Amino acid sequence: MKLAITYTFIGLFLVVGNWESQQQHWQEEDPVPEDSIRLRIFSHDDSLLQQEIKREVRDEVAVYSAEYMEDMPTKEAARDVFDAHLETIEEKAEEVIDAYDVSMPVDVSLEKDVKFPTRVYGPLVYPAGDYEALVIEIGDGEGKNWWCVLFPPLCLSDLGIGEEEEETEKEKKEEEPEFSFFLAEIWDGWFGA
Predict the structure, then answer these.
(1) Does the reported pTM lie above 0.85?
(2) Residue 168 — very low, low, confident or very high, per pLDDT cuts 50/70/90?
(3) pLDDT (0 to 100) of residue 99
(4) Bigger pLDDT: 109 or 158?
(5) What Pfam families does its record include (predicted)?
(6) Residue 171 resides in a domain
(7) Is residue 7 part of a domain?
(8) Is 135 within the bounds of a domain?
(9) The total number of structural domains that make up the chain
């Protein structure tokens, strides 16, 4: 009996140690190159309607931008394209807002030093820092924001178009994998719960 308990604790120690080292390997640095341009959209407020408007604006801008970013060779060329299309992007955002029959201003700008927080998405870590970004502020811009990378067009590939910044704790917990220790199951089998 003492031997079984000893082997069980040794096994648990090895499993937990291995799991800890795997956690560190699972989180890798973001493959986004330094010379990227991000998209950041601030909603008017956190109401369901305003969050829906934000997502519609996101989709419109992402689809519109994808047409121009596909074969863009450099960040400078992408910046020139965005500069030339700021007015059109603003009009597209206004069309979405008008379709919801609400009246609020939209401000679209290309900014060099926009602060982004660290973001963990699956195994990738998007490091915090100041990045060049196309910023869209809807109304007061006081609501939750959303972001992705427009150039290179990494967030456009799956047209779920990136991830929400405002992911809730509940959603985070649902995404966390559940682990079962086989040694614990054996222990329960031998000695009961």
Answers:
(1) no
(2) very low
(3) 95
(4) 109
(5) Spore_II_R (PF09551)
(6) no
(7) no
(8) yes
(9) 1
